Amino acid sequence: MLTCREISKWVSESLDRKLPLHLRVEVRLHLMMCRMCRRYRRQTVALRTILRVQDPSMAPTAFSDIHLSKGASERIKKALTTANE
Amino acid sequence: MSTSQQLSSPEQWVDEHGDALYRFALSRLQNPSAAEDVVQETFLAALKARKQFSGRSPERTWLIGILKHKIVDLVRKESRERPAEEIDDLPSDADLLFDPAGRWRTGPLEWQVHPEKILERKEFRAVLQRCLSNLPKRLRDAFFLREMEDQSSEEICKVLAITPTNLWVVLYRARTRLQNCLNKNWFSDPDRRGE
Known about the structure:
Strand content of chain B: under 5%
Shape of chain B: globular
Mean pLDDT of chain B: 88
Structural class of chain A: mainly alpha
Low-confidence stretches of chain B: 1-5
Helix content of chain B: 55-70%
Oligomer: heterodimer
Largest sheet of chain A: none
Number of strands of chain A: 0
Structural class of chain B: mainly alpha
CATH architecture of the largest domain in chain B: Orthogonal Bundle
Shape of chain A: elongated
Mean pLDDT of chain A: 93
């Protein structure tokens, strides 16, 4: 029987590739019996969803407080003006 | 439909799109100066390619498209220049989470969260940003390509020059570490678990 440590690894991997059938069966049976591994799975999926949420600016919402500094903005404008001449 | 003549001026670009591009770059690179540099390169490349802008998609979408390529190019270049650490040397939280018999020590906490709702909380966004920035670079690069860019394992292995088996180990470590960080710094407060 696989341990929770091993199952958590397969749960993660199942988000990146299709596991071989015997592992899919083993993971599914384990998850039916194990509340903690079910939680691990839910967290893994939730994290993916949270990171894919975008705000209307098309940037991830998790970073919506971040701003380009005034210094960097001026520097970039200067570089663009020079390149445009 | 807009045409290339109707693109805003390069200076306006920075005012209109600078923040969004920088947020996007920082979420992937987690390094402010590298993010600023890649944003500048994006604008410069856009300036050169102005005539090719078809106007079929909004200006922002066009710029983000260029930025994405620049970020992946940078990560690819860094992965090739830097000797790859042995995967086994990369930090893993598994020993903290599991006992020697492979059982959960305390187990993950329950997160009953609605992704869009929890992202409205400024304090949560700050914790998430901190947890992401604490990921070791190799874990972070694989993680953003997979989770944010939704690239296939095959594509990511090419960019990072690693084998699929190593990639899956790296992604597992990144996820487990991030979840552990969020459990400790956000969800350990029972009032925050049900949002």
